[in-house]
What we know:
CATH class of the largest domain: Alpha Beta
Oligomer: single chain
Number of helices: 18
Strand order of the largest sheet: 6-5-4-1-2-3-12
Shape: elongated
Amino acid sequence: MSLQDTISQLARRPGPLAGVLVLELCGDEPAGTFGTQMLADLGATVIKIERVPADDPPPFTPQAPVPEAIAYFWGMNRNKLSLAVDVKSDAGRALLHRLVKIADVLYDNFRPEVMQRMGADVATLRAVNPQLICASVTGFGRSGPLAGYPAYDATIQAMGGGMSITGASEAGAMPVRCGNPIGGLGGALYAVIGILAALARRRRTDEGAALDIALFDVQLAMNAYRVPPALGANRRYIAEPHRGGHGALPYGPFRARCGRWFVLGITKQFWTQCCAVLGKPAWEHDARFRTEDDRKANEPALNAAVSDVIATRDADDWQARFIEAGIPGAPVRSIREAFAHPHVAPRNMLMGFEHPLGQHLQVAGDPIKLSAHPHTPFAGAPGLGEHTHLILTRLLQLDEPELIAVRESRTAWWPDHGLVYARPSVV
């Protein structure tokens, strides 16, 4: 059997990236682990390289409910293999470099000096394998005055400008961080796009690449259509950042009779239907609201009028009316409520595992639907070192004396039995 076939067989889910070997050297942040999960979902063989534990943790015993830390881990590590190896030791780095020789991608989210200490800096890795694609996701990238400066999702959102246009529309209102960590998630998405582009380029040139993805850059890029007006001649935009729908009015949450929030996003093509659904057809001809510019100029009055109307019915009632009219409007749902929506199951957007933890965990599905690759189930997140022995024997072809030596020296580690979910925090 060829090496390529072996790599494909070790993938935990079929897909268009079958045969692509990805090495993950990441902490627990979405900027790293969410990106490699996307690659694993697409059929790549992703090896999560983890620290060797200080001792031999006991196997996990079923608990109800599953501890939050383990549930969190399952949310971003499905379809992966786990290799526990001490990359800070000479012998561990040698094993890493043997994997690098046959790998297609190495994905990290550590500062450059950390990667250098592990013998995993770009220059070293590309010397081992010139065709390797090195994808590095950091807070501020590898150049510029803030290169190497630490980042956290909230600070990245703040520095990138996006947080200035969240929250209430009143002047001086407190900015609000986006609930999902879009700093890290956005970085992962751009990293995956860059990796796919580099793989396509390598097919033509046989050359590897080094990707430098900065979360700060990503936040700046995600401002997209807001940049030209903000940096142009629109001084009102500069002095008072617009927090609404940028042309969609009425826009945002309004309190329904049941106490829940109902969110509108009404652009000009929906205004006539919106007036009808709200039971206010006269608004279509009201001088204050007739055009988009009129609604912008009279936004406080519009919001007050819409608030009064929305307060007369329950959120679910409004939802049914807006769906029937074919215009955008929706109640704010909790995550549990969102995944219970009848539109979720037909799209396979809630996936579950019957797994060795003894319970049924559920995770978000894969939004990428490819006609050439019908939907298949996910494999669960790996236990610590669960696949160390498999990887060392199948990919690196270590014999029994070598396996004994690396385990006794704790260069590499795997559990004697069961699955271990107590993990060292970072590589």
